[in-house]
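User: Please work through this fold.
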Amino acid sequence: NSHLLKISLLFTAYISLGWGMLLAFLIIGMVFNNLFKDGFYPITSCHALWIICGPIGHSANSLIQLSRYVRDFEFLDQLTVSGNSSVFLEIFRENVIAASFLASLLIWSFGIFWIFVCATSSLRNYFNSSESETTKPIFNTSYWSIIFPLATMTFATYQLTIVTDFMFLYVLSWIFTLIVLGLSLLVHARTIYAVIFTASEFWRFYSD
């Protein structure tokens, strides 16, 4: 039955997302522990903090999309299953949207906090670094670790906008979109420039 297959795929999606979120938050806990013990990351790896925004944004985005998918399961009203299964599926559809929304909102809120942590770390290292050869900011491909994770937070914010229709989320979605687009163009241009005109300094970062 195609309807039962859809339900099975939905349950599988929630289970696999739960596994991924568990692993992601274990890593986030390790990063938090390092921050408390050693402080902000050094200039050579400070952008690595942005990677955490990836699983955060992806989890929030996936939860909302799955809940919207459940909302479209109109066939559950006509689906005939024996025993308590029909009652369970009806309760599941009625409650999963609210539960997924609240969970995604909590995760998204943590993502906003983490963006603040990442931006603080990157700006602090950039402006506090000296002009010596060993500590001055050198462009490298780690700057790309800002783009893709921030894009997942943009997708999650847009999904929240669709569900809530809140104006401030709509504005925030556009702000994130413009930031990601601007940073992407800047990092693209800077990467090409570094490879062509400052190749020795660019590749020396990876050999040191």
Notes: The longest helix spans residues 85-128.
